[in-house]
Amino acid sequence: MQWLYDTEALLLTRVGGNTLEAWADAALAVVLGFLLGKLTYFLLTRVLLRLTAHTNTDFDDKLIGRTARPFSLAVLFGCAWLALRLLELPPLAVKLMGGTLLGALALTAAVILMRVIDVLFENLAEPWALRHEPPVNVQVIHVARVTSKIVGGTLVMVFVLQRAGFDVWSVITGLGIGGVAVALAAQQTLGNLFGSLQVMTDQPFRVGDWIRVDQHFGRVQHIGMRSTRIVTTAGQTFVVPNKHVAEATIENAVGAQGQVREFFLSMPYDLDAERLQLACDLVLKVLAETPGVHPEFLAQVWAFAEWSVQIRVIYRVPDLAGFSPVAHAVNLGIKRQFDEAGLVFAYPTRTVHLVGADAGAVAGTQPLVVRLAQAETAQHEC
Q: What is the pTM of this model?
């Protein structure tokens, strides 16, 4: 029995301020943590994953597959932290080693949380957004996903700071004051950010829609956190700040029967009725022969203006992307047909009738005509 007493005495021998028994317990805790981590990973990937393979969804499979390794690391770090508690070490060593292990454990927990959020949004939130009627903007899901990660990371950071002995409330107060200063300095950026959130939640348009914002008309190419990109039918790209988009009146052409074009042709008053009808017939002919124009269109004498007879033309292009080439073809076709028929467009003119005893004498004089023309020009310039 002497060897038992010798073994007990050996275990009570102090090395580095701790008995050999305490060192052995700490080492055993680390080894057990390593083995438990391996066992946790095995149970999750080999046993539980096989059971979830028989379910009707792959959500649980992806969740286990992406969090198994961080879970095993968390078990190892937790056992190492317990092993540290079994030893009597100098305060500085305990603070440094304990802080390191606690930080590693918190970082592992944050990784697990981030991966859980990713799996939740990828397999539940995004499919739900696509199935929802009307479909929810994917950008909204993306913003919610990033916000969830920021909140989760902030909570983990607060926990670590509290365990490290920092006054978290003082830090939060300082961040609040700094946040007010940043908000005052970045009003435009924050305005665009909140404008993008308003666009994403209210959904006045989505990517691919044809919209008009002020004088810009085109297809929405991208909705970002700061601006919205619109590509016009001419191929030009306009970047509109989301703050302006949120405040502007938006015309959304989705659901409409293409793009409708209405314009007026000014014909001179010296054309007789037959020639005016010919002009309308030529316009109708061009519209009927131009590819891309919807078969419902019109061209009719509409009004008697101050210096011309107005022919109203209306046609529709179902394909919004091809509207510009179709309008180009229609305009050229009308000009060619009018040139061949000898029809000309009216210019702004004014006829002055002189009444009086000497009207006939002065009306034919050149100086009077010049003076009238100069007067008309001066009136227009004013």
A: 0.49
